[in-house]
Amino acid sequence: LVVIPVTFFIFMTKMFRTHALDLHEIRSIIASSLGLKDLTSCARVSRDWNNSFTPPLYNSVVLSKHGPNMESVEKNKHLIKRLEIQSAAYEKLASTSARGKVISSIIANSTLAILIMNNNSIGDNGAQALSEALKTNSTLTTLSLWHDSIGPNGAQALSEALKANSTLTTLN
């Protein structure tokens, strides 16, 4: 655990700023200076500071066998700007409808800019669920669907969604 004395930040504030930092500002400064490994450790140890450490942890998320679980991603989806869903995590979802709901829910968040779903075999059903979410999404700029077993019906649904979506600039 990285420990940075709060008194140091207060001292620096008095030297270089005209007002004292509040606790939120101090926490933000500390959180922004830590790497992901340290942020993770701090978030586990300090529940009081969790709101300061959690946002940077969820900026870019890889949903994998060993990463955060789907419940954690769902809870913090408003913080995620880049999300990669690996096949091991995608296949854990029980049914096609559950997968479609997760995709729709994730895409519906207001901050997600990049979604990578390569090698997930989402098929036509997944592409159709994704298409419905894309019609109303206004933040996603990059979508990657390499090797996802999307057939003609899924491709058609995606093309219809792209007619309504004006923010997606990169589709792989």
From TrEMBL:
Source organism per UniProt: Entomortierella chlamydospora
Protein name: F-box domain-containing protein
SMART domains xrefs: LRR_RI (SM00368)
